[in-house]
C-alpha cells in the first residue's frame, strides 16, 4: 500500500530581501501544508523581465541579492523562527516562464498567494490559467515591503526592525547595505 502524499503548498517571491512580511506569509502557508515549497523568483538576473503591473521589479537596483543569498536569508530566518526545516524546500521559481513551473514545484501543490497589488492579481490569474490550485491568504494590509527596506537602507534610516534578525545578520555579512546603495545610485538617474 502506497502511503498518502503529504499536503503540499507553495509560495514564491523575489525576497529582495526576505522581510518580516515574507516570514508571516511563509508561516501562514506552512500552517496549511505539511510540506512547503518556497520559490525564489528572478533567480537568474539574465532572465529577469519587465512586468507592466510592477514596472521596477526587473531593475538591478530592485534585485540586489543573489539567489544563494536569498536562499540563506530564508533558511536562517525560518530556522530562527522554529520552523521544522524538513518541511521546507527552497527552489528557484521562474515566474515569467510558465512552462517550467512544474519543474520546480509539484503539480499538486496549492499555491498560496496574497492579493495586495496589481502584480499579485496578475500572478493569481496566471497560476489559475495554468491549471494550478490557488488559495488566497487573508492578508489585507502589506505591513512591510522589500522596497521599503531598500529605501531605508539607501537613506541611512532604520531598516533592521523590518526584517528577521537572521536576515539582518546575512545582509551585514555580505555588505548588503552598501550594495543596495551602490545599485540605487547607479540606476536612480536612468
Distance between the termini: 61 Å
The helical percent reads 25-40%
CATH topology: Rossmann fold
Strand content range = 5-15%
Top-tier CATH class: Alpha Beta
- What is the ordering of alpha helices and beta strands? EHEHEHEHEHHH
Radius of gyration: 16 Å
Q: Outline the low-pLDDT stretches.
A: none
Mean pLDDT: 88
Count up the helices.
7
Structural class category? alpha/beta
| Corresponding CATH superfamily | HUPs
Return the CATH architecture. 3-Layer(aba) Sandwich
What characterizes the major β-sheet? Answer: 5 strands, parallel
Strands of the widest sheet, in order across it, are 3-2-1-4-5
Work out the number of β strands. 5
Q: How many domain regions? A: 1
How would the blueprint of this fold be written?
Layout lengths: L7 E6 L6 H11 L4 E6 L26 H14 L7 E5 L8 H4 L5 E4 L4 H12 L3 E4 L9 H9 L10 H9 L2 H13 L2
Parallel strand pairs: 1-2, 1-4, 2-3, 4-5
Helix pairs in contact: 2-6
Description:
The protein is α/β, with parallel strands linked by helices and 190 residues long. The chain has one domain: 3-Layer(aba) Sandwich (Rossmann fold), CATH 3.40.50.620. 38% of the residues lie in helices and 13% in strands. The chain contains seven helices and five strands, in the order E-H-E-H-E-H-E-H-E-H-H-H. It has helices at 20-30, 67-80, 101-104, 118-129, 146-154, 165-173, 176-188, and strands at 8-13, 35-40, 88-92, 110-113, 133-136. A five-stranded parallel β-sheet has the order 3-2-1-4-5, with helices on both faces. Strand 2, helix 2 and strand 3 form a beta-alpha-beta unit. Helix 2 (67-80) packs antiparallel against helix 6 (165-173).
